[in-house]
Amino acid sequence: MKPSNEKVALRQEIIGIRNAIRWHRDQKLDDRCWLDDYLVWGKVIELILVSRKLPSFDKMMVQCGLFFAFRGAEEADPFPPDAILDQKEWDKDLRGRNLKGLKETLNELISAIKTHLEVEEVAGRPRTADDDRRLYAVLPEKVPADFRLPKRVDFLGEGKAPGAGCPAFWRSHQNCNEPSCNIHEWGPCGVSS
């Protein structure tokens, strides 16, 4: 018996959201960034990071400093014994699941993302690596994240500029054509070569 169109659509939506969370989890070193949150949050709520104009360099660097202070770790998280390492098996739990079960899974994902989004407003504190861990816990594979960041001087400073570091990243967007600016990639964006 073929699954209904609704079940197929729900599975696709669940996998799309899971893949966004996986992408967030799998960023490493200076590819980890507070902007990655927006790509996950945008899966469940319409978000506009910038309204045609980037926030000031100073405001962006404040966010980078908070990210470094609260969302890094000295070591990668260990792999639990029940982690599913074969990526082809990660969404196996969705096979044969009924419509009610798929809706429950989708609601669990949405709830986890909203909780991650609302940490600062509800808890009144900066988001931490533990908040990220709670977000990743909704994934069935239990693969851990590597929260290690480059040295402070390299992440928040000019140690490896112009190809790395938050200040160099923000400067790379200074002359972007703002409507086509992709803040999730190094700039400049929308500039003809």
Q: How would you describe this structure in keywords?
A:
single chain, 7 helices, mainly alpha
How would you summarize this macromolecular structure in one to three sentences?
With 193 residues, this protein is mainly alpha-helical.
Number of helices: 7
Rg result: 19 Å
How many structural domains does the protein architecture include?
1
Described by its quaternary structure, the protein is single chain
- Low-pLDDT parts are none
Tell me the structural class: mainly alpha
Overall geometry comes to globular
Order of helices and strands: HHHHHHH
Overview of this protein structure:
The protein is mostly helical. It has one domain. It contains 7 helices and no strands. It has helices spanning 5-26, 36-41, 57-71, 99-123, 129-136, 152-155, 166-172. The protein starts with a helix and ends in a 21-residue tail after the last helix. 18% of the residues are buried. The mean pLDDT is 89.
